Amino acid sequence: MYQPIPINRTIKPAVKPAPGTPLGFGQLFTDHMFIMDYTEGRGWINPRIEPYAPICLDPSTIVFHYGQAVFEGLKAYRTADGSINLFRPILNFERMNTSNARMVIPPVDPAFCVHCLKELIRVDQDWVPTDPGTSLYIRPFIFATDAHLGVSPSQTYRFMIILSPSGAYYPEGIKPVNIYVEAEYVRAVKGGTGYAKTPGNYASSLISQANAHAAGYVQVLWLDGVHRRYIEEVGSMNVFFVIDDQLVTPALNGSILPGITRRTVIELAEAMNIPIEERAIAIDELAELARADRVSEVFGSGTAAIISPVGKLKYNDDVMIFNDGQIGKLSQIFYDTITAIQYGQHPDAFGWTEKV
Ligand SMILES: Cc1ncc(COP(=O)(O)O)c(C=O)c1O
Hints:
Elements (H helix, E strand, L loop, with lengths): L31 E8 L3 E9 L10 H5 L2 E3 L2 E5 L5 E4 L1 H14 L7 H14 L11 E10 L11 E11 L10 E5 L17 H5 L2 H9 L4 E5 L7 E4 L3 E6 L2 E4 L10 H12 L4 E3 L4 H9 L3 E8 L3 E10 L2 E4 L7 H14 L10 E3 L1
Parallel strand pairs: 8-9, 8-15, 12-13
Antiparallel strand pairs: 1-2, 1-7, 3-6, 4-5, 4-6, 5-17, 6-7, 9-10, 11-12, 11-14, 14-15, 15-16
Helix pairs in contact: 2-3
Pyridoxal-5'-phosphate binds next to helix 6 and strand 14.
């Protein structure tokens, strides 16, 4: 149904890491990348697959100065029969369009993007790692390419997809993490760009992440930008609480990124008849509930970890410990169920996976 995508294959394929090689995250890239360009009046043109290589941009290119860009993150999973699964990929490109609209970047066709992504993965299929828990991380991104200064939307853009074989997130099993509640800086504000996946949100979070690391914590819990009270996200994950056996997650309010794993957890909970509530939850309310021993589990949700249990939360002088610092029952169920569907070990009753 689509025109064939031109493929310029590398004449120098890199040596792929042997099974058992630690891959880390985002260090290694496959032999090819996908590219298409946008020009006003012509739309998205010249979709193509090229050898992975540095790109050359004029120093005045808009993206360097004004940050007009968006990105996405998803994974491909090697299944036991050797095939390759994608997990709800259309949602990533639909979310990319939400980000595009906020950043005044022209929309893409999500179905065409999934088609191009599958073509690219087929070209580099031998790069999809086979060790348990490993995956091929997929990074689609768009940036403004007009070469001039002046704050105005670019008239030209580049869309690219690069692929990175990645190691298991939990090579030694799931371990709950310690989180530091950021009381000084905020990640996003109402009317800002919090719901968009745009680089500036991540640049502005670096200082908090550095402070959290210096204090011996792994990640930051973000509070809302107006009251500095309502819980938003944990690092680059959405966050869930189990309060009196009910699942609670902050409602999407415009400053939270609408995570695809978040949506998956909510849909699974509904299918499992686990009560779930999306609402505003204040940090002082959480502290009080924790003191009353009513919070049995806290976990983050995101593509990288799928589920990341929180063992300890530090808010000013208050230190909250959840489930004795152990992974909770629901966290384990969601982790096991979602990863089993992704790796094709569990029947996919929801139709969430697609073969490459
Ligand atoms: C700020 C932020 N929140 C939440 C998420 C989780 O989203 P997803 O489940 O789609 O990976 C991400 C990761 O993309 C993120 O960057």
